[in-house]
Amino acid sequence: MAVTRYHVERTINAPARAVWDLLTDATSYPDWNPAVVSITGPIELGRTIQLRSIVNPKRTFKLTVTEMSAPNRLVWSDGLPLGLFTGERTFRLDETDRVTRFSMTEEFSGLLAGLITRSIPDMTESFNQFADGLKQAAETSG
């Protein structure tokens, strides 16, 4: 079974709670996140958010918040029934002495992943823009 993975990390000079607050406030995304065209819906466990990204601005992704462990782990998921295709974005925040190690990983898997991921544009640049925007916003807001 094919797995496609994107990953980014940043060291953010801010407490994990400040970073978490930005990640879980959909209304603030336009202020700091150049990788997201729009995001609506509450970022709350079990809820669905609607996201449009610079990677494919004409498509709205409906993502379910499948895990929330404040202020360390957040997971958004989407996919097809029966595990044919799954996309899962995981955010991790690890804090030491008011400095946060942020990582974001997106994995696409499932029986149809090889076929479907061929139509997904490279997300490397949008991941870097997301992480850089989050870093700047967290470091300047505190």
Give an overview of the whole structure.
The structure is a single chain. The protein is of the alpha+beta class and 142 residues long. It contains four helices and seven strands. A seven-stranded antiparallel β-sheet has the order 1-7-6-5-4-3-2. Helix 1 packs across helix 4. It is globular, with a radius of gyration of 15 Å. The mean pLDDT is 93.
- Summarize model confidence as the mean pLDDT: 93
Q: What proportion strand? A: 35-45%
Beginning-to-end CA distance, first to last residue: 44 Å
> How would a crystallographer describe the biggest sheet?
7 strands, antiparallel
What is the succession of H and E elements? EHHEEEEEEHH
**Which descriptor suits the 3D outline?**
globular
Helix segment tally: 4
Helix content: 10-25%
Helix- and strand-based class?
Answer: alpha+beta
In terms of per-residue confidence, which ranges show pLDDT below 50 for 5 or more consecutive residues? none
Q: Using DSSP, what is the number of strands?
A: 7
Q: Biggest sheet: strands side by side, in what order?
A: 1-7-6-5-4-3-2
Rg for CA atoms: 15 Å
